[in-house]
Amino acid sequence: MDSTALTVKVFGDGADLAEILSLAENPAIKGFTTNPTLMRQAGVDDYEAFAHEVLASVTDKPISFEVFSDDFTDMARQARKIASWADNVYVKIPVTNTRGESSNPLVKDLSHDGVKVNVTAMFTVDQVHETMAALEGGAPANVSVFAGRIADAGIDPIPTMCAALDVLADHPQVELIWASPREILNIVQAHEIGCHIITVTHDLLKKLPNIGKDLDEFSLDTVKMFANDAATVGYTL
Description:
Blueprint: E1 9-13, H1 17-23, E2 29-33, H2 36-41, H3 47-57, E3 63-66, H4 72-83, E4 89-94, H5 104-112, E5 117-122, H6 125-135, E6 141-145, H7 147-152, H8 158-168, E7 174-178, H9 184-193, E8 197-201, H10 202-205, H11 215-233
Parallel strand pairs: 1-2, 1-8, 2-3, 3-4, 4-5, 5-6, 6-7, 7-8
Helix pairs in contact: 5-6, 6-8
């Protein structure tokens, strides 16, 4: 198997403008996501200006931008503003606010008004069930389950992801995102279970060509890397 055989859609996850624009030319990249944390890490200081720069070039692939208010009334205002920027925009809504209050009433209002939402920061199948009830009959949407962070808790995320796919099975307008992968293996796992989308950081995307690589060849490449690095530094004993 190589990357061309993947059925899961690979989305670039980041906020580096130059990398996004480069990835937009890659047919293997089917869409993009970002969030306020990634924007801060990339040095973005003007949220809307950054988004418009991205959207000037990314016109034919879905891209998610996240609200950042913690008040549902203002969250609704931000969501509608973000959605107005382009037809390919999905608005990321966290599954709760910072007080743990459900965002589903807002999600339902937005989705049934035609706003494409990406409900994010989900970790449990119960959250997926509750969110699907809000999305049913609404606009196309994504639900992002943070499989990588589930794994960070020492829990196998695959049963959760498979159960989430079961919840969405009768709702083709809603796609499941495998969020926060930690390694290339996660892309293969997402493909194998039939997950719709996986978001992959720009650094991890550089390893995508390794899928299906011959392991003897990979071993030799690794040995050469060690030898070349030692020679470059000029180590002596």
